[in-house]
DNA sequence: GTGAAAGCGCTAACAG
DNA sequence: CTGTTAGCGCTTTCAC
């Protein structure tokens, strides 16, 4: 049987129901004026023919595909697979679907954008990937709203939604300081990405305010991955020349997990006794028993809502706002990879609180 | 600025280039007969106008959207996020994109299919979700190929690609037996899913062949999730009435990880000394230092290739094959959660071998 | 409330 | 090789 043999159209349904084709269209368009009686006739005919409206065809006239492109640069980091899941769910609830575009981590997504454009998507969300200003303006020109999730292009007119990464970096520095650390190490992510840069910057700034010298802060790249951080950690702590850091900040949780495993299983270090560690993101994986990671929570649901609201999918006539970029602040979640300083009263990151804004958004 | 203000069409390009509109169409259609010179003229005009062909419009005539629907029921299991990533990458290489449909784990995906149909996708891949035979035949009727990934509907005409789960279950049983276990426990997944059922069946069958009584095999549901298995493990091993199992089979790796953490961190058990554990899937996460999970590797790249080949996206005229269902066998990856039986020569699951077919498919 | 008719942006014969 | 001409399946005026 050849494909597309019997895909029935609104004309077929119209014929069967004894109405005009436009009546069929109306029957399936919420809010259009049609008598309940005719609508039922149409529905019955449609059911008989297994008719499903062709939304591709309708988008030709409506100029809306109900498809949102999600460009994602690092599916290996669970943080982003949770983000993807959350977006997909929320969008589905509004009758839209996510079209995925994967790009290599750290790669330019300019080429991807070109493909995105072909599909006439209603909006695009870009996460964990680079993008040139030229591309954002191409989207703007065609009236396609684009928002950078957890990323921004300095000096661009593209909107961005992100956690206040610099402030988060400061929070971690603060925690280390309170716990008495004097020597520090960082495992950084994508050196070109603003996310990693900002976290690093905040962290270092806060440390420097307390008189820590930059030379007392070791810095190694971990490629934003578990494996990369695993090796990076080995590199830092094997090096006998340096005085051993007492505190390690991995700029995201998945790297913190990799570092912790390397430290424990390869180097036999105890955490936090021998070394304190912190991450960033607060992915559910970091909350698990072996890690109990102290971290900064990204307010993911808030960020997603903000993204969707900037996209403003419901009102295509609204036009594109000039880029807005309001960082949302995260908060420190205190678990077990930094010793609680004596006499210090920290907000605890116990599970009651932990559920507040994270994970599934349902 | 209102959206869709200036999306230029092939007519605009044609006018600027001084050719007919069909020439523009040809210029962007690989393999169509057009003079190199005119093609260049068209390209130049297109560039000036920022023209990108509207693939939605073209699909109206070609009957191909270059979109493949992926219905996914359990994004929380890393196995499936790896699967998603792999599909997306491979499909992208062929110039196609993945449209995501998330359904609640274990839920019927019948409603999702209805939405899929609207988008006129070229094919659908269904993973970790239930589907009625009625829906598969609806797809068949309209000539949309559908393949069930790691799932099958007994007695259905839908094609399926899966690991030989029953055989895999037997492999685990075999390993436990070789290591001298006498009492067993299982943590199962979605009770309605064939995947969990088959793994359990193979496991139990093999055990029974060796004279193990069904009553010596404890069975608890773990909801296919880390957390579910964490709690399930606690339930099994807290119960003082039962003689404590010596071997625990979690029917997927993510549950094995949850169980291991519960056992170690809550109950203080050592693995494999106090209890041996095995999983299924061979997700990269299970290879990490804290787990070193003995498991059955799903030949994910083979499975993906098989799926794509059944979908046969390149040849829409071919018609849909009557359901085929050829399980691909997985192999046991021996790591550290089952003690290696003395004198037994097992194929080791060291990393050289581990890279053979798994993870990124690049 | 309903039908007729004109497109949406593109591809696919069909002549030339 | 190139232009002309029909549509693809649907939405949307516009009369009635």
From TrEMBL, chains A, B:
Keywords for this protein: DNA-binding, Repressor, Transcription, Transcription regulation
InterPro entries in the record: HTH_LacI (IPR000843), LacI/GalR-like_sensor (IPR046335), Lambda_DNA-bd_dom_sf (IPR010982), Peripla_BP_I (IPR028082)
Domain HTH lacI-type: residue ranges: 8-62
Coiled-coil parts of chain: none
Gene3D superfamilies from the UniProt entry: 3.40.50.2300, lambda repressor-like DNA-binding domains
Name the UniProt record assigns to this protein: Substrate-binding domain-containing protein
């Amino acid at each position: 049987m050849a494909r597309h043999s019997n895909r029935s159209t609104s004309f077929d349904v119209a014929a069967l129901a004894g109405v005009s084709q436009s009546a069929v269209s109306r029957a399936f368009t919420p809010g259009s004026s049609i008598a309940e009686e005719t609508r039922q006739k149409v529905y019955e005919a449609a059911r008989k023919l297994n008719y499903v409206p062709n939304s591709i065809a309708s988008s030709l006239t409506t100029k809306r595909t109900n498809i949102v492109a999600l460009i994602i640069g690092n599916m290996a980091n669970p943080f982003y697979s949770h983000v993807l899941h959350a977006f997909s769910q929320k969008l589905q609830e509004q009758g839209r679907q996510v079209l995925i575009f994967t790009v290599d981590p750290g790669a330019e997504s300019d080429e991807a954008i070109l493909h995105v454009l072909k599909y006439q998507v209603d909006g695009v969300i870009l996460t964990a990937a680079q993008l040139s200003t030229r591309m954002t303006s191409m989207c703007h020109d065609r009236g396609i709203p684009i928002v950078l999730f957890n990323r921004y292009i300095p000096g661009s007119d593209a909107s961005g939604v992100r956690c206040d990464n610099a402030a988060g970096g400061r929070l971690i520095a603060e925690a280390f300081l309170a716990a008495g650390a004097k020597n520090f190490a960082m495992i950084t992510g994508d050196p070109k990405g603003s996310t990693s840069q900002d976290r690093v910057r905040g962290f270092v700034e806060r440390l420097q305010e307390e008189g820590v010298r930059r030379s007392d802060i070791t810095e190694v790249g971990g490629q934003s991955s578990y494996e990369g951080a695993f090796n990076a950690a080995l590199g830092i702590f094997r090096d006998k020349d340096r005085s051993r850091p007492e505190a390690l900040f991995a700029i995201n949780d998945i790297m913190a997990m990799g570092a912790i495993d390397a430290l424990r299983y390869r180097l036999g270090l105890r955490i936090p006794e021998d070394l304190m560690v912190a991450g960033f993101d607060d992915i559910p994986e970091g909350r698990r028993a072996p890690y109990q990671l102290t971290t900064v929570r990204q307010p993911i649901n808030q960020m997603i809502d903000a993204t969707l609201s900037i996209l403003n999918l419901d009102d295509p006539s609204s036009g594109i706002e000039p880029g807005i970029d309001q960082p949302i602040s995260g908060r420190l979640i205190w678990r077990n990879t930094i010793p609680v300083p004596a006499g210090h009263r920290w907000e605890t990151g116990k599970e009651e609180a932990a559920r507040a804004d994270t994970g599934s958004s349902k």
